[in-house]
Write a structure and sequence with these properties.
9 strands; binds S-adenosylmethionine; about 280 residues; 11 helices; single chain
Amino acid sequence: MAMIDGLPPLREVIAAHGLSARKQLGQNFLLDLNLTAKIARSAGSLADCDVLEVGPGPGGLTRGLLAEGARRVVAVEKDARCLPALHQIAEAYPGRLVVLHGDALALDLMPHLNGPVRVVANLPYNVGTELLIRWLTPAEWPPFWLSLTLMFQKEVAERIVARPGSKAYGRLALLAQWRTQARVVMTLPPEAFTPAPTVHSAVVHLARRDAPLYPADEKVLARLSAAGFGQRRKMVRASLKGVAPDIEAKLIAAGIAPTARAEELSLEDFCRLARVVGAASG
Ligand code: SAM
Protein backbone atom coordinates (compact mmCIF):
# COMPACT_ATOMS: atom_id res chain seq x y z
CA MET A 1 0.00 0.00 0.00
CA ALA A 2 1.41 3.39 -0.97
CA MET A 3 2.08 5.82 1.88
CA ILE A 4 -0.11 8.90 1.82
CA ASP A 5 1.28 10.31 5.08
CA GLY A 6 3.99 9.52 7.60
CA LEU A 7 1.59 7.89 10.06
CA PRO A 8 1.57 4.17 10.87
CA PRO A 9 -0.55 1.77 8.76
CA LEU A 10 -4.13 1.46 10.00
CA ARG A 11 -3.73 -2.19 11.05
CA GLU A 12 -0.97 -1.08 13.43
CA VAL A 13 -3.10 1.82 14.72
CA ILE A 14 -5.99 -0.57 15.40
CA ALA A 15 -3.71 -3.05 17.21
CA ALA A 16 -1.92 -0.33 19.21
CA HIS A 17 -5.17 1.21 20.47
CA GLY A 18 -7.14 -2.03 20.88
CA LEU A 19 -9.84 -0.95 18.42
CA SER A 20 -11.59 -4.29 17.94
CA ALA A 21 -14.67 -3.54 15.81
CA ARG A 22 -17.95 -3.21 17.73
CA LYS A 23 -21.05 -4.34 15.92
CA GLN A 24 -23.41 -2.13 17.92
CA LEU A 25 -21.49 0.93 16.64
CA GLY A 26 -21.63 -0.35 13.05
CA GLN A 27 -17.86 -0.52 12.90
CA ASN A 28 -16.63 -1.76 9.53
CA PHE A 29 -13.35 0.02 8.93
CA LEU A 30 -11.64 1.06 5.69
CA LEU A 31 -7.95 0.24 6.03
CA ASP A 32 -6.72 0.97 2.49
CA LEU A 33 -5.50 4.56 2.42
CA ASN A 34 -5.47 4.61 -1.39
CA LEU A 35 -9.17 3.84 -1.30
CA THR A 36 -9.93 6.45 1.36
CA ALA A 37 -7.97 9.06 -0.64
CA LYS A 38 -10.09 8.12 -3.68
CA ILE A 39 -13.29 8.62 -1.67
CA ALA A 40 -11.93 11.98 -0.49
CA ARG A 41 -11.30 13.02 -4.12
CA SER A 42 -14.86 12.08 -5.09
CA ALA A 43 -16.12 14.70 -2.61
CA GLY A 44 -14.92 17.52 -4.89
CA SER A 45 -12.47 20.29 -4.21
CA LEU A 46 -11.59 20.37 -0.51
CA ALA A 47 -8.92 23.05 -0.31
CA ASP A 48 -11.32 25.90 0.45
CA CYS A 49 -13.72 23.89 2.61
CA ASP A 50 -14.26 22.63 6.08
CA VAL A 51 -15.08 18.94 5.89
CA LEU A 52 -17.50 17.52 8.41
CA GLU A 53 -16.65 13.86 8.88
CA VAL A 54 -19.04 11.79 10.95
CA GLY A 55 -17.72 8.55 12.46
CA PRO A 56 -13.97 8.74 11.71
CA GLY A 57 -13.20 5.56 13.72
CA PRO A 58 -9.44 4.86 13.56
CA GLY A 59 -9.11 7.64 10.96
CA GLY A 60 -8.64 5.99 7.55
CA LEU A 61 -10.99 8.37 5.74
CA THR A 62 -9.83 11.30 7.88
CA ARG A 63 -6.28 10.70 6.69
CA GLY A 64 -7.49 10.48 3.10
CA LEU A 65 -9.30 13.82 3.44
CA LEU A 66 -6.27 15.56 4.99
CA ALA A 67 -3.81 14.06 2.50
CA GLU A 68 -6.07 15.26 -0.33
CA GLY A 69 -5.79 18.81 0.99
CA ALA A 70 -8.93 19.51 3.03
CA ARG A 71 -8.56 22.96 4.60
CA ARG A 72 -9.86 21.61 7.91
CA VAL A 73 -11.64 18.44 9.00
CA VAL A 74 -14.10 18.45 11.89
CA ALA A 75 -14.54 14.80 12.89
CA VAL A 76 -17.25 13.58 15.28
CA GLU A 77 -16.78 10.15 16.83
CA LYS A 78 -18.99 8.40 19.37
CA ASP A 79 -16.47 5.74 20.41
CA ALA A 80 -13.99 7.17 22.96
CA ARG A 81 -11.54 4.32 22.21
CA CYS A 82 -10.79 5.99 18.83
CA LEU A 83 -9.84 9.39 20.26
CA PRO A 84 -6.10 8.76 20.92
CA ALA A 85 -5.59 7.55 17.33
CA LEU A 86 -7.44 10.61 16.03
CA HIS A 87 -5.38 12.95 18.22
CA GLN A 88 -2.24 11.42 16.72
CA ILE A 89 -3.52 12.39 13.24
CA ALA A 90 -4.30 15.91 14.53
CA GLU A 91 -0.66 16.26 15.64
CA ALA A 92 0.56 15.23 12.19
CA TYR A 93 -1.66 17.90 10.56
CA PRO A 94 -1.35 20.90 12.93
CA GLY A 95 -4.44 23.11 13.03
CA ARG A 96 -6.31 21.06 10.41
CA LEU A 97 -8.15 18.40 12.41
CA VAL A 98 -10.71 19.09 15.14
CA VAL A 99 -11.87 15.94 16.94
CA LEU A 100 -15.22 16.01 18.72
CA HIS A 101 -16.39 13.21 20.98
CA GLY A 102 -20.11 12.49 20.95
CA ASP A 103 -23.18 11.30 19.08
CA ALA A 104 -23.54 13.07 15.74
CA LEU A 105 -27.33 12.74 16.03
CA ALA A 106 -27.32 14.74 19.28
CA LEU A 107 -24.45 17.26 19.01
CA ASP A 108 -24.87 20.77 17.62
CA LEU A 109 -22.05 20.84 15.09
CA MET A 110 -22.71 24.28 13.63
CA PRO A 111 -20.53 26.23 16.11
CA HIS A 112 -17.54 24.14 15.04
CA LEU A 113 -17.86 24.71 11.29
CA ASN A 114 -16.77 27.55 9.02
CA GLY A 115 -18.35 27.55 5.57
CA PRO A 116 -18.24 26.38 2.90
CA VAL A 117 -18.73 22.86 4.25
CA ARG A 118 -18.62 19.47 2.57
CA VAL A 119 -19.85 16.46 4.51
CA VAL A 120 -18.05 13.14 4.04
CA ALA A 121 -18.80 10.01 6.03
CA ASN A 122 -18.62 6.25 6.21
CA LEU A 123 -21.29 5.72 8.82
CA PRO A 124 -23.35 2.87 10.19
CA TYR A 125 -26.20 2.54 7.71
CA ASN A 126 -29.05 3.42 10.07
CA VAL A 127 -27.29 6.56 11.33
CA GLY A 128 -26.35 7.51 7.76
CA THR A 129 -29.94 7.38 6.50
CA GLU A 130 -31.25 9.36 9.47
CA LEU A 131 -28.59 12.05 9.02
CA LEU A 132 -29.18 12.16 5.25
CA ILE A 133 -32.88 12.88 5.79
CA ARG A 134 -32.05 15.58 8.36
CA TRP A 135 -29.50 17.18 6.05
CA LEU A 136 -32.03 17.14 3.18
CA THR A 137 -34.83 18.72 5.24
CA PRO A 138 -33.41 21.70 7.13
CA ALA A 139 -35.61 24.61 8.22
CA GLU A 140 -34.17 26.73 5.40
CA TRP A 141 -32.75 25.98 1.96
CA PRO A 142 -29.94 26.21 0.86
CA PRO A 143 -28.46 24.30 3.81
CA PHE A 144 -25.07 24.74 5.54
CA TRP A 145 -23.39 22.18 3.27
CA LEU A 146 -22.33 22.24 -0.40
CA SER A 147 -22.25 18.49 -0.83
CA LEU A 148 -22.70 15.18 0.98
CA THR A 149 -20.45 12.24 0.10
CA LEU A 150 -21.74 9.26 2.02
CA MET A 151 -21.22 5.52 2.14
CA PHE A 152 -24.42 3.47 2.11
CA GLN A 153 -25.51 -0.07 1.74
CA LYS A 154 -25.68 -0.47 -2.08
CA GLU A 155 -29.43 -1.04 -1.97
CA VAL A 156 -29.96 2.31 -0.16
CA ALA A 157 -27.66 4.07 -2.63
CA GLU A 158 -29.82 2.69 -5.45
CA ARG A 159 -32.93 4.08 -3.76
CA ILE A 160 -31.36 7.55 -3.57
CA VAL A 161 -30.54 7.74 -7.30
CA ALA A 162 -33.50 5.66 -8.59
CA ARG A 163 -35.50 6.79 -11.66
CA PRO A 164 -39.31 6.64 -12.02
CA GLY A 165 -40.66 3.22 -12.96
CA SER A 166 -37.93 1.31 -11.13
CA LYS A 167 -38.45 -0.82 -8.05
CA ALA A 168 -36.05 1.30 -6.01
CA TYR A 169 -37.90 4.57 -6.83
CA GLY A 170 -39.65 6.04 -3.81
CA ARG A 171 -39.61 8.71 -1.11
CA LEU A 172 -35.84 8.81 -0.72
CA ALA A 173 -35.30 9.35 -4.48
CA LEU A 174 -37.86 12.16 -4.56
CA LEU A 175 -36.44 13.93 -1.54
CA ALA A 176 -32.81 13.59 -2.63
CA GLN A 177 -33.32 14.46 -6.30
CA TRP A 178 -35.62 17.40 -5.58
CA ARG A 179 -32.91 19.23 -3.69
CA THR A 180 -29.64 17.73 -4.92
CA GLN A 181 -27.93 16.19 -7.90
CA ALA A 182 -27.24 12.70 -6.64
CA ARG A 183 -25.02 10.07 -8.20
CA VAL A 184 -23.25 6.89 -7.19
CA VAL A 185 -19.51 7.53 -7.50
CA MET A 186 -18.14 4.18 -6.35
CA THR A 187 -19.30 0.70 -5.39
CA LEU A 188 -17.36 -1.41 -2.91
CA PRO A 189 -17.41 -5.16 -2.22
CA PRO A 190 -17.70 -6.40 1.38
CA GLU A 191 -13.96 -7.24 1.43
CA ALA A 192 -13.09 -3.53 1.20
CA PHE A 193 -14.00 -3.33 4.91
CA THR A 194 -12.59 -4.89 8.09
CA PRO A 195 -14.57 -6.77 9.28
CA ALA A 196 -16.44 -7.41 6.01
CA PRO A 197 -20.18 -6.60 6.20
CA THR A 198 -22.68 -8.98 4.58
CA VAL A 199 -23.71 -6.53 1.85
CA HIS A 200 -22.09 -4.47 -0.92
CA SER A 201 -21.69 -0.75 -0.32
CA ALA A 202 -21.70 2.35 -2.49
CA VAL A 203 -20.57 5.95 -2.11
CA VAL A 204 -23.20 8.52 -3.12
CA HIS A 205 -22.29 12.12 -3.88
CA LEU A 206 -25.13 14.62 -3.46
CA ALA A 207 -24.41 18.16 -4.65
CA ARG A 208 -26.98 20.61 -3.36
CA ARG A 209 -29.14 22.58 -5.77
CA ASP A 210 -29.34 26.26 -4.85
CA ALA A 211 -33.12 25.95 -5.12
CA PRO A 212 -35.24 22.78 -5.37
CA LEU A 213 -35.56 21.49 -8.94
CA TYR A 214 -39.29 22.42 -9.16
CA PRO A 215 -41.25 24.68 -6.82
CA ALA A 216 -43.40 22.85 -4.26
CA ASP A 217 -44.20 23.03 -0.56
CA GLU A 218 -41.95 20.52 1.18
CA LYS A 219 -44.63 19.33 3.61
CA VAL A 220 -47.23 18.77 0.88
CA LEU A 221 -44.66 16.94 -1.24
CA ALA A 222 -43.70 14.76 1.75
CA ARG A 223 -47.37 13.90 2.40
CA LEU A 224 -47.97 12.99 -1.24
CA SER A 225 -44.89 10.79 -1.49
CA ALA A 226 -45.58 9.08 1.85
CA ALA A 227 -49.16 8.26 0.78
CA GLY A 228 -48.31 7.36 -2.82
CA PHE A 229 -45.35 5.12 -2.09
CA GLY A 230 -46.93 3.78 1.11
CA GLN A 231 -49.42 1.96 -1.13
CA ARG A 232 -47.40 1.79 -4.32
CA ARG A 233 -49.50 -0.92 -5.98
CA LYS A 234 -52.64 1.19 -5.82
CA MET A 235 -53.69 3.77 -8.38
CA VAL A 236 -52.97 7.30 -7.16
CA ARG A 237 -56.65 8.22 -7.06
CA ALA A 238 -56.91 5.63 -4.24
CA SER A 239 -53.53 5.94 -2.53
CA LEU A 240 -53.69 9.76 -2.35
CA LYS A 241 -57.33 9.93 -1.26
CA GLY A 242 -56.51 10.87 2.31
CA VAL A 243 -54.09 13.68 1.37
CA ALA A 244 -56.62 16.18 -0.01
CA PRO A 245 -60.33 16.34 -0.85
CA ASP A 246 -61.33 15.77 -4.48
CA ILE A 247 -57.98 14.21 -5.28
CA GLU A 248 -59.16 12.90 -8.66
CA ALA A 249 -59.93 16.45 -9.87
CA LYS A 250 -56.60 17.67 -8.53
CA LEU A 251 -54.72 14.90 -10.30
CA ILE A 252 -56.42 15.85 -13.56
CA ALA A 253 -55.68 19.55 -12.95
CA ALA A 254 -52.01 18.58 -12.51
CA GLY A 255 -52.09 16.60 -15.77
CA ILE A 256 -51.72 13.22 -14.05
CA ALA A 257 -53.82 10.16 -14.93
CA PRO A 258 -55.76 9.16 -11.79
CA THR A 259 -55.14 5.52 -12.74
CA ALA A 260 -51.34 5.91 -12.63
CA ARG A 261 -49.28 4.43 -9.80
CA ALA A 262 -46.94 6.57 -7.69
CA GLU A 263 -43.87 4.88 -9.13
CA GLU A 264 -44.87 6.05 -12.62
CA LEU A 265 -44.91 9.72 -11.60
CA SER A 266 -41.83 11.84 -12.17
CA LEU A 267 -40.49 14.30 -9.66
CA GLU A 268 -41.95 17.05 -11.85
CA ASP A 269 -45.42 15.38 -11.69
CA PHE A 270 -45.22 15.17 -7.89
CA CYS A 271 -44.22 18.82 -7.60
CA ARG A 272 -47.00 19.94 -9.97
CA LEU A 273 -49.53 18.00 -7.92
CA ALA A 274 -48.09 19.44 -4.70
CA ARG A 275 -48.67 22.95 -6.09
CA VAL A 276 -52.30 22.15 -7.02
CA VAL A 277 -52.95 20.62 -3.59
CA GLY A 278 -51.11 23.45 -1.82
CA ALA A 279 -53.01 26.14 -3.71
CA ALA A 280 -56.36 24.51 -2.90
CA SER A 281 -55.59 24.31 0.83
CA GLY A 282 -54.50 27.95 0.87
N1 SAM B 1 -14.78 6.24 8.98
C1 SAM B 1 -14.15 5.03 9.48
C2 SAM B 1 -13.67 4.20 8.32
O1 SAM B 1 -14.11 4.50 7.20
O2 SAM B 1 -12.90 3.26 8.53
C3 SAM B 1 -15.10 4.24 10.38
C4 SAM B 1 -16.34 3.75 9.71
S1 SAM B 1 -17.40 2.76 10.71
C5 SAM B 1 -18.48 2.14 9.43
C6 SAM B 1 -18.53 3.90 11.49
C7 SAM B 1 -17.95 4.80 12.58
O3 SAM B 1 -19.01 5.64 13.07
C8 SAM B 1 -17.44 4.05 13.80
O4 SAM B 1 -16.19 4.54 14.16
C9 SAM B 1 -18.49 4.32 14.89
O5 SAM B 1 -17.94 4.30 16.20
C10 SAM B 1 -18.97 5.70 14.49
N2 SAM B 1 -20.33 6.03 14.94
C11 SAM B 1 -21.39 5.21 15.05
N3 SAM B 1 -22.49 5.88 15.41
C12 SAM B 1 -22.11 7.18 15.56
C13 SAM B 1 -22.79 8.37 15.95
N4 SAM B 1 -24.10 8.34 16.24
N5 SAM B 1 -22.09 9.52 16.00
C14 SAM B 1 -20.76 9.55 15.70
N6 SAM B 1 -20.07 8.44 15.33
C15 SAM B 1 -20.72 7.29 15.26
